[in-house]
Design brief:
Radius of gyration: 13 Å
Largest sheet: none
CATH superfamily: Tetratricopeptide repeat domain
CATH topology: Serine Threonine Protein Phosphatase 5, Tetratricopeptide repeat
Number of helices: 6
Shape: globular
Strand content: under 5%
Distance between the termini: 40 Å
Helix content: over 70%
C-alpha cells in the first residue's frame, strides 16, 4: 500500500487534522499529482491557518499547474504567517519561489 493510500485510509476513518492533510498534500505533490495535492493543502490551512509550510507547498503545487496568480496569493499569505511566527526556513523558501514568479 502506498503512502497516499495509507493516509487516505486514515482520513476515511475519521482522523482529520492539519498534519494529516499536510502529509497527504505532500505525498501527492511528491507523486507529481499536484491537482490532488491542492485540496488537502487548502484544508490543512483551513484547519490551521498558521501552518506556513502548507502555504509554501500549496503555492508550489499551483506553480506546477501554471496557476501563477493563485500561487502568488498563497505564497504571500504563507510569507506573512512564516514571518509572524518566526519560521525563518519557510520564509526564506517562500521568498525564493516568489522571486521565481517575478
Amino acid at each position: 500500500m502506498s503512502l497516499t493510500e495509507n493516509l487516505e485510509k486514515m482520513l476515511a476513518s475519521g482522523n482529520d487534522s492539519a498534519m494529516l492533510r499536510f502529509g497527504l498534500g505532500s505525498a501527492y505533490f511528491n507523486d507529481k499529482n499536484y491537482q490532488q495535492a491542492i485540496p488537502h493543502l487548502q484544508k490543512c490551512i483551513e484547519i490551521d491557518e498558521n501552518y506556513s509550510a502548507a502555504y509554501k507547498l500549496l503555492g508550489r503545487s499551483q506553480i506546477k499547474l501554471d496557476l501563477k496568480e493563485q500561487a502568488k496569493s498563497s505564497l504571500e499569505a504563507g510569507l506573512k504567517k512564516a514571518t509572524l511566527h518566526g519560521d525563518k526556513q519557510t520564509e526564506r523558501e517562500i521568498l525564493v519561489f516568489l522571486k521565481k514568479l517575478g
